[in-house]
Design goal:
Shape: globular
Number of domains: 1
Radius of gyration: 17 Å
Distance between the termini: 6 Å
Helix content: 10-25%
Order of helices and strands: EEEHEHHEEEHEEEHEEEEHEHEHEE
Strand content: 25-35%
CATH superfamily: Ribonuclease Z/Hydroxyacylglutathione hydrolase-like
Strand order of the largest sheet: 8-5-4-3-2-1-18
């Protein structure tokens, strides 16, 4: 398996970045696109990296926020047939809400109605192709996370703290163990590892890749997460995007050489 970071906050010498994430995955003869970043930057970056968007077999939306979904239309314009999987609960209703501030942070408002034949809403744990799994959150009480982060969903009858039912993990079954991709890990990286381990009892969870949404967390909270991740016995952690530079440095102290930094152009390989 080969995973190439097309978009991340941290740019490389030749590949620009933005606040967002997009990863191109080659697995068992199939090509998977995870997220599309905050714009159409992923299109030019993919070309620079020699990655064909036209050849993508399936796409996955990690969660319904703009910095992962805003390139969806550009993807549909480049790729004529790949299904795009998202959670059934994904909808254009995600906001940052604090006092009088109401900032829309969701997916493109009309994307689901504009491309209904391409977008596949899913519920529960599904295996859209052999060895490729989409796993939703199973951790209770995640609305408390939404409340703390000032993230809300606007419904016809009012505002509700986001419980991240629209967030999912992409899990690939490799010879080294299960590899988890979760682009922002709003539900908590350690929780996500536990969720996946619980769904695959007796299986080794080898890696977790994605943002951990720690840029606004205290040192104590970051250290606590680092210790919890280490206790899972996971062997490879690659994070960036919404993790933040300061938090990454703290995680490095806790996790040592199993920790790696996401950046545009990064290539990760795992035995299939």
């Amino acid at each position: 398996m080969k995973a190439t970071v097309v978009v991340d906050n941290i740019k490389s010498a030749d590949i620009p970045g933005e606040w967002g994430l997009c990863i191109y995955i080659e697995y068992a003869g199939r090509k998977i696109l995870l997220d599309t970043g905050a714009s159409d930057l992923f299109v030019s970056n993919a070309a620079k990296l020699g990655l064909s968007l036209e050849d993508v077999d399936m796409a996955v939306l990690s969660h319904a926020h703009y910095d992962h979904a805003n390139g969806m239309k550009a993807f549909f314009e480049k790729n004529s047939g790949a299904p795009f999987y998202l959670r059934e609960s994904a909808a254009p209703d995600c906001y940052f809400k604090k006092w009088f501030i109401r900032k829309y942070i969701g997916m493109p408002r009309d994307i689901q109605s504009e491309f209904p034949e391409r977008i596949i809403p899913v519920r529960g744990d599904i295996e859209p192709d052999r060895g490729i799994w989409l796993i939703p959150h199973k951790t209770p009480g995640l609305e408390a996370v939404g409340r703390r982060e000032k993230m809300y969903r606007k419904r016809p009858d009012g505002w509700y703290p986001d419980d991240f039912a629209h967030e999912q993990s992409l899990v690939l079954d490799t010879a080294e163990g299960l590899v988890i991709f979760n682009s922002c890990s709003h539900g908590g990286a350690a929780n996500i590892i536990s969720e996946v381990a619980g769904f695959f009892p007796g299986r080794n969870v080898h890696a977790i890749i994605g943002g951990f949404h720690l840029y606004n967390k205290s040192e104590g909270e970051v250290r606590d997460l680092g210790r919890k991740i280490k206790e899972t016995g996971i062997k490879y952690v690659c994070t960036g995007h919404c993790t933040g530079e300061s938090a990454y440095g703290i995680l490095e102290q806790e996790l040592g050489d199993i920790l790696h930094q996401l950046h545009t152009g990064l290539v990760m390989e795992f035995s299939e």
